[in-house]
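> example.struct
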């Protein structure tokens, strides 16, 4: 009887070994299975992967915003067409933190991948009723702006949040500082004024003043006023005075005088 049980156990073990050997025959030693292969970067066609790897660090997970604007803002998608979105992704924005992603411009993405990102942003995050029947100012300015009129418009629509002269207040950050304006283009300023930044509770062009949406020209003029505040050497903390000092660094007494000013 004991010999019979031993024979059964031996047969069972042999059967398991055969199954393992047969299973192993399907994948030759050292050859990866098809489901374990890693795609080359230029072969990735999944929107979620492309967005996560290339866009989310600045524009936030699911397009909800971060260091850069929220791409999932329906108002933004209502004023910016596919050509505008793709152009920015392709070429980047010179002088800002937005790089060029197209291979033709030194980036890593193919034209097909840029199409997938552009179409994916539109299909996932746009809303047909985003404007609720309102006529938004154009994505691009239609006429030159006037900085003097823009100052008046700023006081009407923006000062309550961003403070007198754009120097910041409790509700909004400073927006006339040299470093900020050096890192943002007029087009980006216009886009933000129109679309707002819902991720940080900044209203769009319709809601700065209740019942009084900004006109296209008022948006253009505000941008012109902001642009007029740019300085040639942003980030320099103190004025340089001619005191006979040949050093590039101001002396302590110069810093004290500058602070008192």
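> example.seq
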């Amino acid at each position: 009887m004991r010999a019979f049980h031993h024979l059964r156990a031996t047969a069972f073990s042999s059967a398991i070994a055969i199954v393992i050997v047969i299973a192993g025959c399907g994948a030759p030693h050292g050859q990866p299975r098809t489901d374990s292969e890693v795609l080359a970067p230029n072969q990735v066609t999944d929107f979620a992967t492309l967005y996560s790897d290339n866009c989310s660090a600045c524009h936030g997970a699911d397009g909800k915003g971060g260091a850069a604007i929220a791409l999932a803002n329906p108002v933004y998608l209502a004023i910016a067409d596919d050509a505008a979105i793709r152009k920015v992704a392709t070429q980047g924005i010179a002088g800002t933190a937005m790089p060029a992603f197209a291979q033709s411009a030194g980036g890593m993405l193919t034209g097909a991948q840029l199409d997938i990102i552009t179409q994916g942003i539109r299909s996932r995050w746009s809303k047909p009723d985003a404007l609720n029947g309102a006529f938004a100012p154009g994505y691009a300015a239609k006429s030159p702006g006037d900085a003097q009129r823009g100052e008046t418009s700023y006081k009407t629509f923006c000062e309550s949040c961003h403070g007198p002269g754009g120097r910041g207040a409790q509700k909004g950050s400073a927006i006339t500082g040299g470093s900020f304006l050096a890192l943002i283009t007029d087009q980006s300023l216009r886009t933000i004024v129109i679309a707002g930044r819902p991720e940080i509770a900044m209203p769009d062009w319709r809601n700065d003043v209740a019942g009084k949406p900004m006109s296209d020209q008022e948006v253009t003029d505000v941008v012109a006023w902001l642009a007029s505040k740019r300085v040639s050497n942003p980030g320099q903390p103190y004025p340089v005075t001619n005191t006979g000092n040949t050093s590039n660094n101001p002396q302590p007494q110069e810093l004290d005088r500058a602070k008192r000013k």
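> remarks
The CA atoms of residues 157 and 210 lie 10 Å apart.
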